[in-house]
Amino acid sequence: EATAKVIDGKAVAKKIRDEITIEVSRMKESIGVVPGLAVILVGDRKDSATYVRNKKKACESVGIKSFEVRLSEDSSEEEVLKSVSGFNDDPCVHGILVQLPLPSHMDEQNILNAVSIEKDVDGFHPLNIGRLAMRGREPLFVPCTPKGCIELLHRYNIEIKGKRAVVIGRSNIVGMPAALLLQREDATVSIIHSRTKNPEEITREADIIISAVGVPNMVRGSWIKPGAVIIDVGINPVEDASAPRGYRLVGDICYEEACKVASAITPVPGGVGPMTIAMLLSNTLTSAKRIHNFQ
Ligand code: NDP
């Protein structure tokens, strides 16, 4: 039977948003500044539009002002760079987010480099990532999804220091920064990717697994050490004729099997997903506080 404790990302995210709401209004009342988040959306990908809409809604719900620029699929890289630089200079904007992926004719690196590191609330600027990787340096921002994973471990009092942690996936936005964060928290970290042989032998050693792969139910119960803690970042649609839209979302971890072995696990949905947006709001608030020197 299931024994794992469910790590309720939805509830934690709600609590964090409530904390942010209080801080935003305290800031507004004390110094008359409202934190602002600017989102640049290029092209008409439906999923990107949905993410942007959700981010804007989340901003409103905590009192953060949101700004949006929408550019067409065929706009030029220069136009995107111009929007970025406009927001870099705008004192009402404390966070800038370029929704990825960008159309293929644009150089993502160029555009991410152009975001002021003081407003890089996604934490994707190479200087922020570089600082994250270096001992004795502090990034101004940490990428939201991996930050949300670590925040869940903290809020559930799960010790990271000295533990064996395994990250599955090495993407710039999730896997790689998750591994760096775990290492900063004094875990001993292994990284599994698509060329790793016998991944299950490595995961079986893990006290903590963070999975960001994009393969539904890849990690089976037999891959997991009894008592391990599982953070499942994957959001994967699988066909389900009985679901209203004909599909449902599952993680990278085979949830039913994992529940019988792990000591704690995040569900999909309702685990890491809601934390990502909460961390974006938190980064935006932090940025506004830093820019206005408000404690
Ligand atoms: P990417 O596709 O950028 O990266 C996937 C990583 O998984 C790569 O490093 C890849 O290895 C590795 N990988 C792929 N297949 C295997 C395999 N069979 N065995 C081992 N490793 C494998 O994905 P993202 O990091 O952007 O996203 C990962 C998942 O997380 C997706 O399901 C996505 O939807 C979800 N996600 C959820 C978010 C949230 O808010 N909860 C936010 C962002 C993503 P290699 O490097 O060798 O190619």
TrEMBL record:
Pathway: One-carbon metabolism; tetrahydrofolate interconversion. Keywords: Hydrolase, Multifunctional enzyme, NADP, One-carbon metabolism, Oxidoreductase, Photorespiration. GO terms for biological process: one-carbon metabolic process; photorespiration. Residues 143-290 form the Tetrahydrofolate dehydrogenase/cyclohydrolase NAD(P)-binding domain. GO terms for molecular function: methenyltetrahydrofolate cyclohydrolase activity; methylenetetrahydrofolate dehydrogenase (NADP+) activity. It catalyses: (6R)-5,10-methylene-5,6,7,8-tetrahydrofolate + NADP(+) = (6R)-5,10-methenyltetrahydrofolate + NADPH; (6R)-5,10-methenyltetrahydrofolate + H2O = (6R)-10-formyltetrahydrofolate + H(+). It comes from the Eukaryota. One of its GO terms (cellular component) is cytoplasm. Residues 7-122 form the Tetrahydrofolate dehydrogenase/cyclohydrolase catalytic domain. Transmembrane segments: none annotated. Homodimer. Belongs to the tetrahydrofolate dehydrogenase/cyclohydrolase family. Catalyzes the oxidation of 5,10-methylenetetrahydrofolate to 5,10-methenyltetrahydrofolate and then the hydrolysis of 5,10-methenyltetrahydrofolate to 10-formyltetrahydrofolate. This is Bifunctional protein FolD 4.
